[in-house]
PAC2 family protein (Propionibacterium freudenreichii subsp. shermanii), 345 residues
Amino acid sequence: MIDPTTLFSYEPTIDQRTIHDRVMVVTLGSFGDVGASQAQVDEHLLNTLTHRKIGTFDVDQIMDYRGHRPPIDFDQDHYDNYVPPSMTLHEVVDKSGNPFLLLTGPEPALQWERVSATIEWLMDQMDVQLVVTAQGVPMPVPHTRPINLLKVATRPELIPGNRGSGSFRMSSSFLAMMTQRLGEKGRDVIGLVARVPQYLADTEYPDGAIAMVNGLNELAGLNIPVASLEQASHLARAQIDAQVEQSEELQQMIGQMEEQYDRYMQDHSLPMNEEDIPDADEIGQEMEDYLASLDPGTPDSDKGPQVGPVDHDEDEHHSDRPGDNGPRDGHDGPQPPADPDIPND
């Protein structure tokens, strides 16, 4: 492995010896930013809290530009406004005056092991005790029900009261690999995964960002306000509901999803007695039962929101998805299975 310490550069004004931050939040994109959840978390933290730039990764060594082409403008007879990708480490101060680190940017395409080693080196440099990853995944859930977080961790003590979701094999993301590698070194990592309605995967859906920020406050001990996100959520909900009201097919589709969701939550709610809590195999079987309960006659995406993964590789984006504002960048990776308790990262 190439020396991981050469992959990151501090800003000239930063003396890393003075930084001692307990928490590092990582929002590197994985398989596309579903519901713009990570982008909204980044924007919210950097727009509402005091922050400073600590340093950047050398993205030329770890990015696949053909796979994730940066934007550029063509203006009459020349090119302009090229925006290169950036992986940036910020120091942010929450409302209680507690500093924490925020690592933003796209998912690295190359040298995953080296990037993970660089993050571990940064943890040692700045006395980081806990890494928290945050992301959204598309799931067959209605927007009229609360967003639930799936939680993973390198130690069960980090997510008290959490119950597992069975065992399965899937395509890895960088965040999943990094979580395992840091866990193997005895580091504490928590993963927060917001289940975003899959028919809203290509739109900005503030509820996913709200769920992740609330998870950061609860599990990382931070104090991050969510008032501006809640205002955005009310506006987004009104726009989505207005579009749904104009389509009987969408109303029927979402109504079916609500019934399926409510029936599943009622029939498969976990008992309160500890001795009656099902094991991982039983929970996995419940997930299979849920999938089997989904209506196989669901209309295709060109007739409304579909129950199943959204294909982010398709060339056309259908305008009758609620909140669809056209294609978004970054949705070109493998998609997670249509299971409300299975993260793709």
Remarks:
- Strands lie at 8-10, 23-26, 50-57, 73-75, 78-80, 88-93, 99-104, 130-139, 149-153, 188-197.
- The radius of gyration is 21 Å.
- The helical segments are 37-48, 112-125, 174-184, 206-220, 227-245, 248-267, 280-293.
